[in-house]
Amino acid sequence: MSLAIQLENISKRFGSVQAVDEVSLELPEGSLCGFLGPNGAGKSTTIRMLMSIISPDSGVLRVLGGSALDNKDRIGYLPEERGLYRKMKVGEFLWYIAKLKGVHPTGLTQRINDWLDRVQLPGVAKKRCEELSKGMQQKVQLLSALIHRPDLLILDEPYSGLDPLNSRLITELIRDEQRRGATIIFSTHQMHTAEALCDRVLLINKGKKVLDANLSQLRAQHDGRGIVVEPAGDPQAYADAALAAGFAARAESTHKGLVEIELRNGIGGNEALNAALAAGACRAVSLRRLSLEDVFVQLVGGSRADLHADGGAADV
Amino acid sequence: MSNAKTVRRSWWSRTGTISWREFKHTALTKAFFFGAVVVPMLFLGVGFLVPFMVDKNAPPIKGTVAVIDPTGKIAAAAQHIIDTEGDTGLFGDMPAEAQETIDTAVATQGGGASAMLAAADTRSEIDLTWEIYAQEGVDGAPSIDALKDELKSGNLVALILVNPNGADAKATAPNEAGLSIFVPTSSSPKHQRLIGRAFETALQDARVRSLGITDADFDRVRQRPQAETFRISPTGGEAEEINGARMLIPAGFMFLMWICVFTSANQLLTSTIEEKSNKVMEVLLAAASPMQLLAGKILGQALVSVIMLVMYGGAAIAGLTAASMNDLITTSDLILFALYFIMAYFMIATLMVAVGSAVSDLREAQSLVGPVMILLIIPIMLWLPISESPNGMLATIASFVPPGMPFIMILRVTAANEPVPMWQIIASLVWGYGAMFGMLWLGARIFRVGVLMQGKPPTPKELLKWAFVR
Questions:
Q1: Are A81 and B282 in contact (CB < 8 Å)?
Q2: Of the residues A76, B52, B150, B268, which has the maximum number of CB atoms within 10 A of its CB?
């Protein structure tokens, strides 16, 4: 399968700040990739280089098999900071962007109206952008990235500021675009969304790539090293008993009355369940599945205390 | 996978789309239509219509004028002047050449020109009855108070009291009034001038005679000698100095260029800031390169500027043609104007768009626009000294300093009665266009970095640094 995006050791420095440091990535066509990282990690800089808005200081960058500059018309881009011409009418704005992206004017008005209907904005083509609510403006902006049916869709924080209903609508649109054959890369801070939607995750921190994996690989790598117990009695007493029994490397009671246990090396799943039941009366015992958020916090250097112990738990 | 519905386009196709939006956003608005189309049409219309309206509305002067004239000479003389000359020359003594131009135009041209100029020479209908008394209250003459009451009640159009010593030049103190004129509140200023001028002339003639000078001699003395000025160049060329009417043409050229360039450049500044502050810039940069965006914006506003130029310049030329003064503008003036206008527009537009790209809002722009405005104001400050000496050292040096040089050059080439040396024109065009392309390059480099920058506005030094960032 040919590659939609190919980055080879690209770097970008702004003054004394190394915004992107030797990042490499190969993203096959048709992928749906989550681009994660804390604020200031270099996500937007990388995306801007992908869009050829800025050039890398070093490294090789290929988009859709060629130069990003030559393939601008095949790329749809939703920037992190939303922008519309306030006084321009919605239909006029979408027409302008579509024309810039090389869409033939024949049938363009109908296409714009169809898209507006699809995102539940019927009849707003004649309204000025400033008359729309923030959520509506965001949907119009997303349409400006989709209107020319791009082969590569780059979305920077597409869910920012959307209510749950509109978030679901955006998710459907992203899935439809992937089904159509488009390659999609989107940055987000909503880990659960990325987890639910992506088949590939790229995580960068301080300009460096710290993770590049499929979600299935990620789970295989990080899952299964912990269990969560809901004791019948005092959680702290149960945590002490678990440590004394020797199968737990670490045991902590949480404010929800649960006990999180990190297993010692060499302790398998069945052995852990038996040991947990032997350590005291329990209402429930489950394998602790590491969420994407846990991975994020781990790799970016956060504390495990920030983790949501019940997130992603699977009943045993 | 392919994007079948898109069409492959040239660099200029995308630039054209941006240009059209920029043009449409500015020019296809009610404000622009009013400012660039309606206003010049209005000027032109007013120029043609006012004389007709003045002609039709010239009020007649009818009624009785009472005069108390102890000298016994002034009232009769003034009456004679009004009866024979009417209100001719009320707008002041016209220079001989201007009067000649008017007479020629009226005689040779029909239509608007002759109507307009004839209207300027309009005469009021005069039907006056005179009551002349030697002294108030004597021999049945009414008192001054009684005459003033008559004036208030509308039975008199004017009451004139002549100074008893007014006709004697030696008996009148230097600042002593020769006569007093009383008119009702409803009196027309034109009628006041008519009566006042007739009596002043009569008084002046009487005083001249009191000194023993004949009318013929006085007329000879009164004719002001005309000076003919010639400039002699080092090469031996000799040319007659320009007259007053021609002084306005260079200023017209320069201000027209200044207004058209500045209006569009200012629009570029605000639209760039708007795109940056509204965060549209990144969307645009995802669809076009910074150079395409810059070129599209500048060319779109250039069209706006050209429309303004055509409308205002066309109105001015039509006005001059109507007044038979179109010979004051030559074809070479117009060609040079076009060349310097292009130079000025691209220089100033580049500066403004570079400043616009570097800041986030209009307030931030003020500190950077300040130096640009000073550069723009310099040609206006130098207007008078350069008009006085179009081939002097100041003018020559200023002709080669961008970005004000195109304004200075157009001022010089249209002001100098002795032509600006050809080498200076060619050198200024070559150097000016070189500087223009240099500024475009510099502006594009700053624009490319500036449009993506957020935070505090840069210093001029930082702006220059941006130009050399990879």
A1: yes
A2: B268
Helices B422-450, B290-322: axis angle to 10 degrees equals 140
In this predicted model, what pLDDT tens digit does every residue of B179-202 receive, in sequence order? 889 988 878 787 888 888 889 888
**Are A299 and A252 a contacting pair, CB within 8 Å?**
no
Boundary-marking domain end, from A165, A196, A219:
A219
User: Closest partner residue to B14 among A48, A51, A100, by Cβ?
Assistant: A100
ipTM of the complex: 0.76
Please give the Cα distance from A81 to B285 (Å, whole number).
13
The rounded Cα B362 to chain-centroid distance in angstroms is 31
Alpha-carbon gap, residue B39 to B203, rounded angstroms: 47
Average pLDDT, chain A: 85
Please check whether residues B270 and B368 belong to one and the same domain: yes
Residues A197 and A263 in one domain: no
Give the CATH number for residue A53: 3.40.50.300
Query: Where does residue B467 rank: exposed (0-12), middle (13-18), buried (19+ CB within 10 A)?
Result: middle
Please name the amino acid found at residue A239: A
Q: How far apart are CA A235 and CA A242, in angstroms?
A: 10
pLDDT in tens, B47-67: 677 666 655 555 678 889 999
What is the Cβ-side half-sphere exposure of residue B57, based on CA atoms within 13 angstroms?
Answer: 8
Chain A nearest-CA residue for B271: A85
Contacting residues for A166 by C-beta, under 8 A, at least 6 apart: A135, A138, A139
What domain range includes position B129?
61-88+123-222
Q: Mark out the alpha helices in A128-285 (DSSP H runs).
A: 134-146, 164-180, 191-197, 215-222, 235-245, 269-278
In the predicted model, is pLDDT for residue A273 greater than 90? no
**B21 contact residues in A (CB cutoff 8 A):** 96
Summarize pLDDT for B133-171 with one digit per residue, the tens.
888 888 778 888 999 998 888 889 899 999 888 888 887
Whether residues A74 and A186 share a domain: the answer is yes
Distance CA A194, CA B260 (A): 54
| Residue A139 burial (CB count, 10 A) | 23
Question: Are B3 and A148 in contact (CB < 8 Å)?
Answer: yes
DSSP of B255-267, one letter per residue?
HHHHHHHHHHHHH
Do residues B231 and B417 lie in contact, with contact meaning Cβ atoms separated by under 8 Å?
A: yes
All residues at 6 or more sequence positions from B263 whose CB lies less than 8 Å from its CB, including other chains: B304, B305, B308
- Domain ends where: B173, B188, B222? B222
Residues B317 and B361 in one domain: yes
Nearest CA in chain B to A78: B283
Q: What is the pLDDT of residue B244?
A: 56
| Verdict on whether the full-model pTM lies above 0.90 | no
Structure confidence at residue B115 as a pLDDT band (50, 70, 90): very low
